[in-house]
């Protein structure tokens, strides 16, 4: 009997933008207003697709001036967007079947996905819990303290493209970084098995 190789792991690089205020806010007050993602066919690429969607906030529907200035997301962008309960299923359908690993630069994005699922009484897909904190892994593999995406790009000599603090642009930039060290992470995980 012929054995088939296990399917290659796909990686979903996600970056969220959320409502925010100059004076700060508790995490339960913040809501996703943009979901950006890049799908990598494997730890070495290539990029297999992109997902970008604004999300209409419901708890605090009016964006603060600080939020608009930070993200460049306009009130009209979110007013015309679908709410989270409609965007999340589209995102899940776009990802496609397992296996895949969700990745983000830091732990915030997964926490915010959990929070928005809780707010809307939706179940976070169990597969999302298979998550790689790329910021932490970059620090572990390259040495030094954890740093922001913009600084890591500069350290690697990769130009920042698009607008910083825009979900889809940050997801594209994070994907460039991830391709530098995801193979090392994957090799380490294979070695541990």
Beta-strand residue fraction? 15-25%
Largest sheet: 6 strands, mixed
Proper CATH architecture = 2-Layer Sandwich
Oligomeric state of the chains present here: single chain
Number of strands: 6
Q: What order do the SSEs take from the amino end to the carboxyl end, as H and E?
A: EEEHHEHEHEHHH
* Spatial strand arrangement across the major sheet: 4-3-2-1-5-6
Q: Helicity range of the residues?
A: 40-55%
CATH topology: Nucleotidyltransferase, domain 5
CATH class: Alpha Beta
Overall 3D shape: globular
In the predicted model, the low-confidence regions spanning at least 5 consecutive residues are none
Q: Please, how many domains?
A: 1
Q: How much is the radius of gyration in Å? A: 17 Å
Overall description:
The chain has 193 residues and is α/β, with parallel strands linked by helices. It has a single domain (10-188), classed as Nucleotidyltransferase, domain 5 (2-Layer Sandwich). The protein has seven helices and six strands. Strand 2 (32-40) and strand 3 (47-56) form a beta hairpin. It starts with 9 loop residues before the first strand and ends with a helix. The relative contact order is 0.19.
């Amino acid at each position: 009997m012929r054995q088939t190789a296990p399917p290659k792991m796909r990686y979903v690089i996600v970056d969220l933008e959320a409502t925010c205020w100059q004076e700060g806010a508790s995490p339960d007050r913040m809501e996703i207003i943009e979901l950006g993602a890049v799908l990598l066919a494997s730890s070495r690429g290539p990029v297999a697709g992109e997902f970008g969607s604004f999300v209409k906030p419901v708890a605090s529907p009016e964006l603060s001036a600080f939020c608009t200035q930070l993200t460049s997301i306009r009130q009209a962008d979110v007013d015309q967007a679908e709410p989270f309960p409609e965007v999340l299923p589209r995102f899940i359908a776009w990802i496609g079947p397992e296996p895949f690993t969700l990745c983000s630069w830091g732990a915030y994005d997964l926490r915010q996905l959990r929070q928005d699922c809780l707010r809307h009484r939706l179940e976070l897909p169990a597969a999302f819990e298979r998550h790689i904190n790329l910021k932490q892994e970059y620090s572990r593999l390259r040495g030094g303290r954890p740093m922001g995406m913009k600084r890591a790009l500069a350290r690697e000599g990769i130009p920042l493209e698009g607008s910083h603090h825009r979900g889809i642009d940050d997801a594209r930039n994070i994907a460039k970084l991830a391709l530098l060290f995801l193979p090392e992470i994957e090799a380490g995980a294979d070695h541990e098995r």
